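Action item from last meeting closed. Structure (490 res):
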């Protein structure tokens, strides 16, 4: 997840920081890239004289030639040389064949590497024309048609994304340096936002967001960092970015249920939500209810649930009154046949309850503990175990103790059914511990619930016996009438 700086005041910029390693290990995004170890120009055949031509995106041709280093030419000539290097870097190459145009690719990679070092070190100031040309070159390289997703090739619309083959962008040796250049440009203290916002405009941001459809995790990691930096530095873009992300979520919820970059977008949102001023604006609350909570209905929620849960919890911590709509929203989308999803929901609810105040807890405790009771009786021992683990949380136990006169009558029957007949011995032991806790809370109430339970059991047994007796009488009558009919026929 993105690190969060708490205590932000209204109107202040959230501090823009590098994302730490993700849950699956260190990030692939680093500053010092092995791919930037350039081959010296002298090692290329006829380095100073040979000129190689490659077609540009237009019909004209751009010369791909080895150019001198910017630091080696007089300051008066750097502007022209910079533009020349940018034009060389604007030429696309086909990476499907590793042996095709090897020299040209290496020249472009060396120029990209030099531009990254230039922007990172700030050794040469860029005027507006140089910045504009550089951003155009970046756009030509990264804004491209993405290949079809794996599920589109196989036609398995409802398939598990984990079973899809991971796609790695073949042009990554160049693309990585282009992303690194964009990142260094955005975070550079020499970048004036008043100038840069002319090039990094709404259209540019939308194109960046479209790239989150990429199935290459390395590309999405860079996009996450860059978009987060843009949000932090360009305040004018903040409402637009939030609205655009909102639209991506709506499309995922109501149309596709496929978005490779959903986890990365939620990581960015976790940082954004942490910087919201209190009291929260109505638009932020609507975003929670209309976009974030419905994300729980997706089948493969496990691929982004950790980030989603963090965003939800941030909202409740910012405004405790949101606990009731959040809890009711989770109950609305509660899974019926997906046990793994139930375990995730129970864990998220526990985090939400940690930030819930007693008044808000009372609003939703009845439907909440009816669902918890069903989970306690689940034949899947992991679901039952996760629900019973709630009683290890001191804050939740305190909320239950304050409202035991309402909660115990709801939860008593599921507890007793577990004691009487759950197949898993570990669940029986955990259930027994919860019973002991309720006895210690209020022995008199527990006895009252026990008596009521026994009475209900007796009534149920009596009704069952009465029903059996009635059926036997009906069978006897039907048998007699059938015998009379046989006699009359004879």
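Sequence:
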């Amino acid at each position: 997840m993105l690190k969060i700086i708490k205590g932000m005041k209204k109107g202040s910029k959230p501090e823009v920081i590098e994302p730490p390693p993700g849950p699956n290990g260190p990030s692939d995004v680093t500053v010092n890239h092995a791919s930037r170890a350039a081959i010296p120009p002298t090692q290329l055949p006829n380095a100073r004289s040979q000129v190689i031509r490659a077609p540009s995106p237009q019909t004209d041709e751009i010369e791909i030639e080895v150019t001198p280093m910017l630091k080696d030419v007089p300051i008066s000539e750097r502007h022209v040389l910079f533009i020349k290097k940018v034009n060389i870097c604007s030429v696309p190459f086909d990476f499907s064949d590793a042996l095709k145009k090897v020299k040209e690719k290496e020249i472009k990679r060396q120029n990209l590497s030099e531009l990254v070092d230039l922007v990172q070190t700030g050794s040469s100031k860029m005027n507006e024309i140089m910045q504009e040309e550089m951003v155009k070159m970046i756009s030509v390289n990264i804004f491209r048609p993405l290949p079809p997703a794996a599920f589109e090739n196989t036609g398995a619309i409802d398939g598990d994304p984990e079973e899809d083959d991971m796609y790695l962008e073949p042009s990554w040796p160049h693309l990585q340096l282009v992303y690194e250049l964009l990142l260094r440009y955005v975070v550079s203290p020499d970048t004036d936002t008043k100038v840069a916002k002319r090039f990094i405009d709404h259209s540019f941001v939308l194109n960046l967001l479209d790239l989150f459809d990429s199935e290459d995790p390395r590309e999405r990691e860079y996009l996450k960092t860059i978009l987060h930096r843009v949000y932090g530095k360009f305040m004018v873009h903040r409402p637009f970015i939030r609205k655009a992300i909102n639209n991506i979520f709506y499309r995922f919820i109501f149309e596709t249920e496929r978005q490779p970059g959903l986890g990365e977008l939620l990581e960015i949102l976790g940082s954004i939500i942490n910087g919201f001023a209190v009291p929260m604006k109505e638009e932020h609350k609507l975003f929670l209810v209309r976009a974030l909570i419905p994300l729980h209905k997706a089948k493969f929620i496990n691929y982004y649930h950790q980030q989603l849960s963090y965003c939800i919890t941030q909202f409740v911590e910012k405004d405790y009154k949101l606990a009731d709509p959040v809890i009711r929203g989770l109950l609305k989308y509660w899974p019926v046949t997906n046990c793994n999803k139930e375990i995730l929901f129970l864990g998220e609810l526990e985090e939400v309850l940690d930030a819930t105040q007693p008044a808000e807890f009372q609003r939703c405790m009845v439907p909440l503990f009816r669902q918890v009771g069903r989970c306690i009786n689940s034949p899947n021992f992991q679901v039952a175990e996760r629900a019973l683990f709630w009683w290890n949380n001191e804050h939740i136990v305190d909320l239950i103790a304050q409202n035991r006169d309402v909660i115990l009558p709801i939860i008593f029957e599921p507890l007793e059914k577990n004691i009487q007949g759950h197949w898993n011995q570990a669940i029986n032991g955990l259930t027994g511990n919860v019973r002991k806790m309720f006895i210690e809370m209020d022995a008199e109430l527990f006895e009252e619930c026990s008596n009521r339970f026994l009475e209900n059991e007796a009534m149920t047994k009596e009704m069952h016996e009465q029903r059996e007796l009635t059926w036997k009488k009906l069978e006897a009558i039907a048998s007699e009438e059938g015998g009379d009919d046989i006699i009359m026929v004879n």
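Note appended to the action item: The longest helix spans residues 443-489.
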